[in-house]
């Protein structure tokens, strides 16, 4: 529904709105073994695990739709693009 609203607002401004590619964010369970490994590694490194859902698309989206269990994590501020598991 947000896409329809956005399209209507664009049209009001005389703009053209077109979706060329749309992928829903991937989801994975925090019960995934690799997810637990990542948390253990962070703990061993003395780093805090800041786990929270974040809607983003990347290669994990494609792989997870093919049945490949995925987690995505990395250094930095998650507001810049880090991804985490959905519970």
Detailed description of the structure:
- The chain has 87 residues and is mostly helical.
- Helix content is 34%, strand content 0%.
- It is built from three helices and no strands.
- The radius of gyration is 17 Å and the shape is elongated.
- The two termini are 24 Å apart.
Primary descriptors:
single chain, 87 residues, mainly alpha, disordered C terminus
Q: Tell me the distance between the termini.
A: 24 Å
Structural class call reads: mainly alpha
Average pLDDT reading: 76
Number of helices: 3
Q: Estimate what percentage of residues fall within beta strands.
A: under 5%
- What is the radius of gyration computed over CA atoms, rounded to a whole number of angstroms? 17 Å
Major pleated sheet: none
Query: In sequence order, what are the helices and strands, one letter per element?
Result: HHH
Q: Helix proportion of residues, in percent?
A: 25-40%
**Global outline:** elongated
- How many β strands by DSSP? 0
**Uncertain segments of ≥5 residues (pLDDT<50)?**
82-87
């Amino acid at each position: 529904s947000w896409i329809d609203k956005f399209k209507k607002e664009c049209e009001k401004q005389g703009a053209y709105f077109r979706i060329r590619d749309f992928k829903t964010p991937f989801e994975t369970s925090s019960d995934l073994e690799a997810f637990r490994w990542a948390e253990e590694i962070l703990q061993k490194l003395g780093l805090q695990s800041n786990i929270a859902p974040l809607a983003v698309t990347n290669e994990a989206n494609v792989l997870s739709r093919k049945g490949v269990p995925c987690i995505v994590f990395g250094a930095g501020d998650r507001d810049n693009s880090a991804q985490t598991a959905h519970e």
